[in-house]
Design goal:
The chain is of the alpha/beta class. The protein has 19 helices and 21 strands. The chain has a six-stranded parallel β-sheet. It has a five-stranded parallel β-sheet with strand order 12-21-20-13-19. α6 packs parallel to α7.
Length: 526
């Protein structure tokens, strides 16, 4: 494989786009230069920042790209892919990842020791049976499906079959975030004995100098299951493939309708395109049948999957009063009263549950904090962006005050907090949710962590030990991927209509709606 691409790209420095364009002009002088070419470079970099590798190839962009000479030759910086245009380096890196996964999928592996389970078809539907048997025929299996289609129960059956056919199999469970990894581990644990389960960064031993696992020190696994594949970007996938032994099989699980990753390169979306899925043969299985009755939540999510925001908005207005998805129009210039009231009520409840936990002994802490962590995961407030009206910043400034945001010691007891970086030495992963306990100099942050043996425990941390910490009364929709809650509120400050950004808006809304297990309140602009 080629060199690893940079990890993530969120928050590229200002001037990066202009610097990149200037460097390209020096290295490959364009035949025709001008502001149109610089604008094309800017659009392509903006696409990367949003997790996309390409932009639509409009007639105007095609004229600019061809006139510049940047589309000609095998070393040109731009590459056309159907009706899309992107940076050659990124697109070729994506295709190398796809090619390696396809090659792995068709690699042979030792014949299993035991026969298959003859009662499989009595427990699963035909789609799920096909997924379970797929691992007999392919070393890489793509298992896709929406919420409630039985992906987790299918994974459990795949693991049971794999172990029965190959005793002593070394199996690992992984996900891109700590929350998603724990959800996967808990779901599998409810059906069978526990398995090692962690974030991909922790499996790969990520650190400031790169990854501790690589081709010269590969993972000691025979089968790796990765959930929430839609969150996996190109750079992390490259690192994973560098660290996988050649005989290790992969079970990749995810929902193709969710948001692309924050980092560049939506690997799962690429793998789900028909021409790519076909290359995996029997190893690509999509689950359609829904088992979980989610009422209007499921109906509206399906509308978004089909891709019409205007129809979605029209159907919202026709929902009955008893539907488990309710719409609350509100003027954008005011913070919605419904959200304020719900948040204040929730913060008071968390404060009561968190009180005195700073005085518990380490032995008492696990049991004493159980109700707090259960309540913490009962509700979610989601925003599509970090800044602007109804944003993450707006929520926290409204509820906590601008000055309180600057000092961890001033945060109220019971405040939900989020870890913003991977700190494996503490057992913490980027995206882990915790709670503020204690006051003033006694302020501590309470988190559930997984110890080296894979067991869940509760730990208290001094604020100085956490490299990046933020309030988490609300989360961005991107941050909430891999999470679920009984009740979800979504603040939606944008018009619900088709336009240039419609596809991204659909994926945002779909991801937000599918976080809700029981009910969802959608706050829209009047």
């Amino acid at each position: 494989m080629t060199e690893l691409l940079p990890l993530g790209n969120s928050g590229w420095p200002s001037g990066f786009t202009a610097g990149l364009h200037a460097a390209l002009r020096r290295r490959i002088p364009p035949q025709v230069d001008g502001p149109e070419l610089e604008e094309l470079s800017r659009d392509l970099v903006l696409a990367l920042e949003q997790g996309e590798l390409t932009v639509p190839l409009t007639p105007e962009r095609l004229v600019v790209a061809e006139a510049s000479g940047w589309l000609q030759g095998e070393t040109s910086p731009l590459l056309r892919q159907g009706d899309r245009l992107g940076w050659r380096r990124w697109l070729q890196a994506m295709e190398q990842v796809v090619d390696e996964l396809v090659e792995r999928a068709h690699a042979s592996f030792p014949e299993p020791v035991n026969d298959a389970d003859p009662g499989l078809s009595a427990r699963l539907n035909p789609e799920q049976c096909a997924a379970v048997r797929a691992l007999d025929q392919a070393s890489v299996v793509l298992l896709s499906g929406g919420p409630g289609t039985g992906k987790t129960s299918t994974v459990v059956e795949i693991l049971a079959r794999a172990e029965a056919r190959d005793p002593g199999l070394r199996i690992g469970l992984a996900a891109p975030t700590g929350k998603a990894a724990r959800r996967l581990g808990d779901a599998v644990l409810s059906e069978r004995a526990p398995l090692p389960c962690s974030t991909l960064h922790r499996w790969l031993e990520a650190g400031s100098r790169g990854f501790g696992r690589h081709r010269h020190r590969p993972l000691e696994l025979d089968l790796l299951v990765i959930d929430e594949m839609s969150m996996l970007d190109l750079a992390l996938t490259q690192a994973l493939l560098e660290a996988l032994p050649s005989a290790c099989r992969l079970l990749l699980v995810g929902d193709p309708a969710q948001l692309p990753p924050v980092g560049s390169g939506a690997v799962w979306h690429r793998l789900q395109q028909p021409e790519v899925r076909d290359r995996f043969g029997a190893g690509a299985v999509h689950l359609e049948r829904t088992y979980r009755n989610r009422g209007a939540l499921a109906e509206m999510a399906q509308l978004l999957r089909q891709g019409d925001l205007t129809a979605f908005a029209a159907d919202l207005t026709a929902l009955p009063e008893q539907a488990n998805l309710q719409v609350h129009p509100s003027p954008l210039r005011r913070f919605p009263a419904l959200v304020r009231e719900r948040c204040i009520q929730r913060l008071k409840q968390l404060e009561v549950l968190a009180r005195d936990l700073d005085r518990c002994s380490d032995q008492e802490l696990m049991a004493a904090s159980r109700s707090l962590f259960e309540s913490l995961e009962h509700d979610l407030l989601l925003c599509p962006r970090r800044r602007g009206p109804w944003s993450l910043e707006d929520v926290h400034r409204t509820l906590l005050g601008a000055s309180a945001l600057l000092k961890v010691e001033r945060w109220p007891v019971g405040l939900p907090v989020i870890c913003g970086s991977n700190q494996p030495e503490l057992g913490l992963a980027n995206g882990d949710l915790g709670v503020a306990i204690g006051a003033g100099s006694e302020r501590r942050l309470l988190f559930q962590v997984v110890d080296p043996d894979g067991q869940l425990e509760v730990r208290r941390f001094h604020p100085a030990r956490l490299r990046r910490l933020e309030p988490a009364v609300a989360l961005t929709i991107h941050r909430a991927q891999g999470s679920e809650a009984d009740r979800v509120i979504v603040l939606w400050p944008d018009p619900l209509e088709d336009g240039p950004a419609a596809d991204h808006q659909r994926r945002l809304l779909y991801t937000a709606i599918t976080r809700a297990r029981v009910s969802l309140d959608l706050v829209t602009v009047i």
